[in-house]
Amino acid sequence: MDEILRILQNNARESVEDIARMVDLPVDDVKAKIAAYEKNGVIRGYQAVIHEDMAHVDTVTALIEVKVTPERKNGFDTVARRVGSFRQVRSLYLVSGTFDLLLFVEGHTLQEVAAFVSEKLAPLEGVTSTCSHFMLKTYKHQGLLMDPPDEYERLKVTP
Amino acid sequence: MKDSKSPPDFVARIVRSIPKSGIRDFFDIVNNVPDAISLGVGEPGFPTPWHIRDAAMYALEKGATAYTSNLGLPELRRRISKYVAQFFGIEYSPTDEILVTTGVSEAVDLAFRATLDPGDEVLYHEPCYVSYRPVVELAHGRPVVLNTRYEEDFRLTADAVAAKIGPRTKALILNFPNNPTGATLEPSDLEGIAELARRHDLLVVTDEIYSELTYEGTHRAIASLPGLRERTLLLHGLSKAWAMTGFRLGYACGPRPLIDAMMTIHQYTMLCAPTLSQWAGLEAFEQVDADVAEMRSRFRRNRNYMVAAFREMGLPLIVPRGAFYAFPRVSGLGMSGREFALALLEEEKVAVVPGEAFGAGGADFVRCSYSTSLENVKEAMQRMARFVSSVSGTRSSVARS
User: Fold this and answer.
1) ipTM > 0.85, yes or no
2) Which residues of A touch B371 (CB under 8 A)?
C-alpha cells in the first residue's frame, strides 16, 4: 500500500505539508495523489474514532451472524447489497465459518435493533437464520485502545 | 603522609582516569526540566511489542527464573544462528560460535577483555557511542581515534583507517549505521577496510545494533566479506530494532576460539544473560519481519519529517541513512553543540544531546533522536525552528549594528 495511504489510515487529519515531509515529496504531488485516491474511491471517507462511553453515545450496537442461501451466479452479492443498503447496518462482511454474513447493526434502543432484525433482515429472501449479540463495552476499535494504560515514564537522555 | 580526615581512596588509577560520560552530565541537567520534550533518548520511544512482553510474562508464570547455560538457552542460540544466517548471510554454529550476553554492552566489554594485552591499540571512529573508548581502556588497551567528518558524510574511509595502523594495532571497532551520526558505509569503504584488516591481520569488532534500521540501500556486515569471518566478532542484540533496551539482551558471534575466550570471562562475571529476557528474545524472533518492518517504516517517516524540518530551518545535516538519529551542525549559529542544547532546553524545553558527548569531533553538532512519537517530533521541530530563527535574528541584528 502507498505510504501516503498508510499515513492517512493512521491519522486522517495529518496535514498535506506534514505528509509531504514524511514521504519526501513536493506538497503539490501529495495533494494530487490524495485527490486521485478520493476520486477513484480508494479513499472512501474520513472518520473520527470516538470513545462512545465518554461521549455518552446513546446507541446500541449488535453483532449479527446471518446465514444465507447463495444465489446461482451472484453468490452472496445480491443479498449482501440489499442488507448493506439499510442505514442501520454500519458494517457488513462476508466471512468463512458456520455463518456467512457478519453485520454490525446500530439503533437507538434494543427494541429498535430487534425490530430491524425481525422485520427487515430475517424476512429477506435468501436469509435462512440470524443470531444477534449485543455489544456491552468497546475495549478497542480501529486499532485504538479506548482506555490505554498510562505511558511508562522513560529516562529523558540515554546514550 | 595522607590526611587522616579524608577517607582512603581505593579507586583504581585506571578508573579514576576515565572521565564522566557527557550523557550522564547532560541527563542531570535535563532532569531538572521535567516537562521537556525529549529527543535525547538512544532507544525507541515506545514499549516492546506486546507479543514479546506476553512471552516474558508467560515465562515468569511457568517459573523460568533459574540460570541458563552460560552460553545462553540452546534454542535461543539456534534461533540466533538462523536469523544471522538469513539477515547477514553468515553461518555460525549455535553450539560454540554464539554467546548470549547481557546487552551488546557486555559483549563489547568481553570482546576487548578477551583479546587485548596491555598496550594493544584499538582503532575506533568518532563521533561514536560512548562506551568504546572507556571499555578499551578498562581492558588495558590503547584506544586510537579515527575522526569521521561531516564533509565525508561521516563515513569511515579505508584511507583514514590505513593512516592510523601501526605495529601495535590489534583491532578495529565498526558501528554502522552509526550512533550518533546516522551514517552508513559504502560498499567500497567496507571492502577497503576489509582488505586492510586482512593485510594487517586485524581483529574487527562490529557493533551491528542498528543494522535492521537501514533506510537507504542494503546493510552488509563486514564479517560476510571474504576472509573476514575468521577475524570478526559480530555483536548484535535486540535493544533497538525490537525496542527491548531494558531486557538487556545481546549476542556475540565469532570464531570458536574468540567466543571461548569471551565465555571464559562471561561464565565467572555474568554466568548467563537474564533468563526471562532470553525467553522474550526467543519470541522476538517469531515475528521478526512484521515487527521490524513496522518499526523501520515508522522511523523512516519521522526521519524524513525531521530532515525536512532542519532544512527549512537552514541547519546543515547529512541525511541519516540508518539508526534513528539526526546530527545537525549548529556551529553556523555561532554556538557549540553544548551551548545550543543548553539554550534550547532553557528557552523551548526541548532536550537534544550535545555532540561532544560522542567525541570531540562532534562538538559543533547536536544529536536529535527521531525514535519518539511523530507528535513529539513535530512539536519539538516547531519549537526548535522558533529557537533557531530567534538566534539567527539576534545574530544578524548584532552584525548590522
Assistant:
1) no
2) none
